[in-house]
Amino acid sequence: MFKKNQFNKITIITIALAACLLVLSIIFSIRAFRSTRYIVYAEDKIYDEYIKDSPLPQKELGIIFVKESDKAQLKEKAFGPIIKVAGKIQSQKEIALLPQEYDENQKFFVLEEEAMLPSVKADFSSAKSGAANSPDLSISFSNSEGLPLGNRAIPVDGVYADDESYKLLVKKGVLCTVFEVKLSKDIFEYCEKIFIAPEKKTSPELVTIASVGDIMVARGVEEILIEKKDGLEAVFEDTLPILRGADFTIGNLEGVVTESWKNATKTYTFKFKKAVLPKLLDAGFDYLMQTNNHCYDYGESGFKDTLAAFAEYKIPSSGIGKNKEEAKKFYHTTIKGLPISVISCGAFPVERSGFNGERTATATDTRAGILWKSDELLEQIKAEKKAGYFVIVNVHGGEEYHFSPSKKQRQFYEALCDNGADVVFGSHPHVLQPTEWHGKSLIVFSMGNFIFNGMENMNGGTDSEVVKLGVLGGRIAYVEQYPAKIKNNGVRLKK
User: Fold this and answer.
1) Alpha-carbon dihedral 116, 119, 124, 125, rounded to 10 degrees
2) Whole-number Å distance between alpha carbons of 124 and 469
3) Is 185 helix (H, G, I), strand (E, B) or coil?
4) φ, ψ dihedrals at 188, nearest 5°
5) C-alpha distance from residue 173 to each of 27, 41, 116 (Å)
6) Which of 61, 78, 303, 357 lies 20 to 30 A from 18 at CA?
7) DSSP 246-296
8) What is the pLDDT of residues 168-199, one digit of tens each?
9) Which of 273, 377, 360, 261 has its CA nearest to residue 318?
């Protein structure tokens, strides 16, 4: 028989166990009817930038988006809602060269696209500098903004940064991962509304700009262009794809468009028929420069005839006008979102014949003519750059048949860059002169002749080039030189 005190102990234990079972039963019963709070954690930066102030409702989904650094504060309480992590949102990058694979419970939302550029030190003394097969190649990788000074970008397997198949395109965005499969649809739809937006940043498009030297189509060339069915191909040959392929192509028309016979007293005077202008447009030229030492070969009347012919065929130009105010105007255009400003000016020395362009051909309040280099021009360029333009300056200057820029030439071209010019294209020397970086700006001191019959006996007079730039985000990234040679009645690339 049990003693009385043993019985009491058993009774107490039994009651305690029963009480515990009752409490647990109550707890489990309460827990069975507790609500569930689904949490999606997001990186702090993502949360602050996209989710924090989003007007999209969360409570209706039964999902709460929480900053990752706050998750420690969300402790589950005994009688509160059950907290379950339904997903997470984190930063993610993708490189086209190394594509990522995701399962059905993950989605990548792209917010930005940026091209990474391999670049090398630019040796402009060799058109082939920067070739990918060079054994001494030292390659840097950056976006266009961070391109090292003195470098030029190189294509990847022949593909440029604007091509959709470019292998170094970096996609930046967020990766949404769902743990509660039943909520996948709601979470992904919510993310799509937040992260797929019209203001999504994309990599700027590549804008290509090409320029050539002097174009003088007299001495039989204009007859070929105007009269022959294949005149363009006969004159420009294999340079045509480059001229036509660039978004914006510049040339210096060395002579006037007039029927006048009243030529100036000069060593050489050049004039062309206006029927040649549409042929030059067909060749790919988008802008023709006239601020050269042959613009007044037939006096002010011949110059005015040229202005009229340019207007008739809608030939873009600048630095020329019926008066000083017109000549001061920059040519503006926008290509693939890039605002471009172009101005041309004269800076050539007095000719041996005595022709003084600054005194004779410069536009005044009462005389049609060209824009001449000046401090005022430097201030105008500064203003254009401040206004957000990519600034191109074409200068007809330097000494004829000199293979190096003169001190005055260099000082003026560098001053143009210091005041905002992104690129300076030079002409007039009739021979090639160096191409150099000046900070982030590029100076092409002289591109020589491009179309110019009768230069065979002049040292370097038949050497030419096409310079082609690739601009990304308002900065020159690619610089390519295509050596060419004047032969017979045209020009062709050097093989």
Assistant:
1) -150
2) 13
3) helix
4) -65, -40
5) 44, 16, 16
6) 78
7) SSEEEEEE-SEE-------SSS---EE-GGGHHHHHHTT-SEEE--STTTT
8) 999 899 999 999 999 899 899 888 888 875 55
9) 377
Dihedral (CA of 245, 246, 247, 249) sign: negative
Q: Measure CA of the first residue to CA of the last residue in the chain; give whole Å.
A: 119
CB 481 within 8 A of CB 491: no
Token pair 């992590």 in the structure block, residue: 85
Q: Is 193 helix (H, G, I), strand (E, B) or coil?
A: helix
The phi and psi torsions of 476 (rounded to 5 degrees) equal: -70, 120
Poorest-confidence range of 60-74, 281-295, 320-334?
60-74
The structure's pTM equals 0.84
The alpha carbon dihedral of 356, 362, 367, 368 has a sign of positive
HSE value, Cβ hemisphere, 13 Å, CA-based, for 121? 6
Sign of CA pseudo-dihedral 398, 400, 403, 406: negative
* Distance of alpha carbon 78 from the chain centroid: 59
User: 341 is written with which tokens?
Assistant: 């400003």
Helical H segments across 163-251, by residue range: 184-195, 221-227, 231-236, 240-245
